[in-house]
Amino acid sequence: MVNLEWYRTFKEIYENGTLTKASIALYASQPGVSVHLNALEAYVGKKLFERTSRKMIPTEDGKFLYEYIIESLKKLEIAEQHFKKTTQEKNPSLNIGMCSEMFQLIIEPEIPKLDFDLVARFGAHTDLIKDLNNGILDLVITPKKQNEKRSLVEYIPFSKERIVLIAGNKTNTTQIQKHIKSNNLSNLEAELHQNIWYSSSNEMEHFRRFWFENFNKKPAFKPNYILPNITSIIRCLNNGKGLALVPDFLCQEQILKNEINLVWEGNVKTENTLYFASRTDLKYKKELNTIKNIFTSKMK
After folding, report:
1. Does domain 93-160+272-299 have CATH number 3.40.640.10?
2. Which of 4, 48, 123, 292 could potentially form a cystine with 62 if both were Cys, beta carbons 3.0 to 4.6 Å apart?
3. Per residue in 223-241, pLDDT tens?
4. CATH superfamily to which 161-270 belongs
5. What CA–CA distances, in Å, run from 62 to 12, 33, 68, 69, 258?
6. Beta 93-98 vs 117-122: how paired, if at all?
């Protein structure tokens, strides 16, 4: 008999592209994910993925199976979430989504003070908004507003994030500052190329946008170190050497402590508006406002 978890595992591998990312999404071990996939392939009698060193590429049979089961799995996830909500009336529960760095900085210190249950999910903004539309999440913090007709999701702007150039405090930025003051962008770009660069896989869009808006071209180099998240970047730069482009609110404390240096905000300021995206049919308005107030008090 087929195990429903095999299909869940198949879905996450299909959408995430690797066993490692799928295991993270499922809160499972990578060997366990492999076991589920192998069992499903044995059950259906077909190969569902081509295994490469970097990615799991779905076969035609895999694509067909995904299209056949995806809507049913989504409906099941929605049913599970609503069932939980209706059977736990004594203790309200809020399901929220955002980037992991924002959660660690803003929400994590406040969790012991909350008088309701909280389930946090991290991921790409498009995936989180999809879960919000499907009723799996109640609130998403996002820099991207989607305009959909007949949607039960409303977007309320509450703050802005500015992408800034920072450096470890042991980085020699003398020449960089010289070119910034003289507004010699050609020499500034050349000087920036000579340094060690950090970025993260989920922030490359900000990196490219800052570069294009200030130098009117795409960056002609690849960062030396691409890390899982911005928190890792800041820890690496803390009392070290190197440059990075990051949202300003994530590094304010380290700048005040002189652990890293603010180098340049750009001639053209690269900013994103941050939105509270929430469902209009949400039952727990009081709990939602508690989370919103935490953000607005910390991100003035």
Report:
1. no
2. 48
3. 999 998 899 999 999 989 9
4. Periplasmic binding protein-like II (3.40.190.10)
5. 12, 16, 10, 11, 52
6. parallel
Domain with CATH 3.40.190.10 in the chain: 93-160+272-299, 161-270
Contact 97, 131 (CB under 8 A): yes
Q: 4-85 in CATH: which number?
A: 1.10.10.10
10 Å CB burial of residue 250 (0-12, 13-18, 19+) is buried
DSSP assignments along 236-251, one per residue: HHTTS--EEEEEGGGT
If we measure between CA atoms, which residue out of 227, 209, 205 comes closest to residue 217? 209
What's at 3, amino acid-wise? Answer: N
Q: Name the β-bridge partners of 154.
A: 278
Cα–Cα dist 277/137, whole Å: 10
Residues 6+ apart with CB under 8 A from 92: 116, 117, 283, 284, 286, 287
Render pLDDT for 129-161 as a digit per residue (tens, 0 to 9).
988 888 889 999 999 888 776 678 999 999 999
DSSP result, 124-154: -HHHHHHHHHTTS-SEEEES-----TT-SEE
Helix 4-16 crosses helix 30-44 at what angle (to 10 degrees)?
A: 110
Report the C-alpha gap between 40 and 57 in whole angstroms. 16
Strands 139-142 vs 270-279: parallel, antiparallel or unpaired: antiparallel
H/E stretch holding 181: helix 174-182
Q: How confident is the model at residue 1 (pLDDT cuts 50, 70, 90)?
A: low
